[in-house]
Amino acid sequence: MTTKRILVTGAGGQIGTELVTALRSRYGDANVVATDIQPLPAAIREAGPTARLDVTQADALAELVRRCDIDTIYHMAAILSATGEEKPRLAWNVNIGGLYNVLEVARELGVRRIYNPSSIAAFGPETPKVDTPQETVLRPTTMYGVTKVAGEMLGAYYHRRYGLDVRGIRYPGVISSETLPGGGTTDYAVEIFYEAIRHRRYTCFVRADTVLPMIYMPDCIRATLMLMEADAERLIHAAEYNLASLSFSAGELAAAIARHIPDFVCEYRPDFRQQIADSWPQTIDDSAARMEWGWQPEYDLDGMVADMLAKLTPRLAG
What we know:
The protein is an alpha/beta fold.
């Protein structure tokens, strides 16, 4: 396998933490530089090179790319949906300003390939909610969604104008057994496991009938690597792929957990995040990803729940 020199921004986030581990396993610990504005977990610091990086500081980013001879950037640093509604200026500065810096540094310094994730937050109330098409209306109602649409367009612009190889996936909600979520509207789908194991009770901030697209972290990481390793000549929608894996209601998730923990009780008290969730799709058409780079999920709801509980219970019980 060709040696790569990889930089990961936002490496301490929910996806970034596990992505760094997967990349180091694949390309060698020394070849993956993990960065974040916050202190990184000890496991990441001890396994390979790290640096503190604020992606809104272009000079610092450029210096790091030069010093480490970076040829691939996974740009995972972002302010997510719920936090973005509380701090919209911060969301714009990090999500758009940071991406612009990454793209400009890549263009100027000859970085070969950029991964810039998008999200189902790019969709909005006017987007078809069932089997959301690859090419559809993008009129989000959150600052996070606005930045994701703009990010997709920036990636496409830099590809068209400068020939930069920019790729990305519209992630559904991500469920992980290793890292807590960081301020997103789908956080309940992770929090519920912790509360079920610890307290046998959870108060969910969306309605029981709220259906959203989700993906289990092993599938999320696998999809990311598949796209980044795909032959460029096969990719048509390079910076904005729809991705589907799981779609279930909050009530269905609670019921699946209760099949393993019979005394688990879930209550529902919707807050401001309900309105965000209602603006997003329920199911996604990801036929472009399947045709262009062979995407196929491995986990269904029951498989994901069983695996989450098997991994979390020994750490949390008692």
